[in-house]
Amino acid sequence: MLNGAYRYPLMDRVIFGKPYVEAAVGEADRLDARAIFVMASGTLARETDLVERLRMALGNRFAGLCAKIGAHTPRSDVVAAANAAREARADLIVTLGGGSVTDAAKMVGLCLGNGVAQPEQLDGLRATIEADGTVHRPALKPPSVRMIAIPTTLSAGEVSAGAGCTDTARQVKESFSHPEMIPRAVILDPAASVPTPEWLFLSTGIRAVDHAVEDICSIDGQPLSEGCSVEALRRLGRGLTGVKADPRDLDARLDCQMGAWLSMIGSQSGVSKGASRGIGHVLGGTAGVPHGYTSCVLLPHVLRFNHAVNADKQVRVSEALGRPGELAADVVSALIAGLGLPTRLRDVGVRGEQLDLIAENAMHDRWVHTNPRKIDGPGVVRGLLDQAW
Fold first, then answer.
1. Domain ranges of the chain
2. What is the pLDDT of residues 17-76, one digit of tens each?
3. d(CA 275, CA 10)
4. Which of 219, 324, 339, 389 has the smallest count of CB within 10 Å of its CB?
C-alpha cells in the first residue's frame, strides 16, 4: 500500500504575474519590515535599473545592498554579506537575481541566526555525507532574518529550504538546510527576467526540467509531486521553446516560472532525487559548471542509465513533453539541442583530468545514493561522465 507524508513548507505565499516592485512593497508592508537588506545580481545592479527601482520604492526602509555574490555562492561572499546585514540591523532580506543570490540570502539568514562572522565557522553548520550515503546534519538555530525572493532565473531554489554554499579552499559545494531558510514569499514577475542572458534563463529552465524528471522517476515519489512535475514539464516544454522564439514573450516566461515552481513540490516534501542532480552539485562546486549546464550535459545520460529500472516512469516524461512513445532521454536531448544549449562536458569547461575527482566527490552527495539504479562506487559515476564527455 502506498504510504508517506507530505510536508508543507514554511512559506506564506507565491505571488505570480504581478510587477515585482509593487509586490515587494506589499510584502514589506505585510511583514512590517523597517530595515530591508537587498541582495542582487551584480550584473542587474550594474547594467539595469531593476535594483534602483526596488531601492526607490522601499524608500527609507532600504537598509543596504549586496551585489557581490559569486557563482555557486562562495563562503567568503556569504559571510561578508551577513556581516553587512548585521551592521545594518536588517529585519528582512529581499533578493533580486538568480540561484546563487537566492542561496546566499538563505545562508545570510542562517549566519545571523547562528552567530557566524567568519567563513570557517560554517564548518559546524554544514551537512556531511559519507561515501556510503550516510547523512549527518548538525542541530542549527533558525535564521534570525527571513527573506523574500524575486528570481530572475529558473533554478527554483527560492522555493526550497536548503542552500548550496561553496568552500572554495576545498572546491566543494556544501549543503545547509533549516525549515525556516525558505523565503516567506516568492514573487514571480516575468518582466524582471527579461534582462537575464538567454543562455542562463534557458539552461536554468533545463535545471527545472531536471527537478521534475527526477521527481517523476524517484524511488519515493508522491502523488502530489508527480502531478505537479507532469504539469511543470508541460509548461517548461512550451515556455522554453516560446522564449527561445521570442525573448519578450512574457506569457512564455511566466509559463517557465510557473513550471520551475511546480518542479520543486517534490523537493519541498522530501522526494529523493537521482544522479543528475547529485553529480550536478559536484560539477558546480568542483569544476565550476553553471547550474543549468550541469543538467544539460547529464540528464539525458542519467535517463539512459536508469531506463532499465524505471522505463514505466520515464514514459510519463515523454508524454508531458509532448512526444509520447519516444524514449525520454531522446526527448530531453532534443529539447536541449533545440534551445541551442551545450550537451557535452568538454563544452562547459570540464577537463579530462578532473573526471576522477568529480567521480570521487559525487559519492559524497546524498542524491547519488538515491538514484533509481544503484550506483555503488565512483567507477559507475566515471562511466556516466565518460558518456557525457
1. 13-127+134-191, 204-388
2. 999 999 999 999 999 999 999 999 999 999 999 999 999 999 999 999 999 999 889 999
3. 27
4. 324
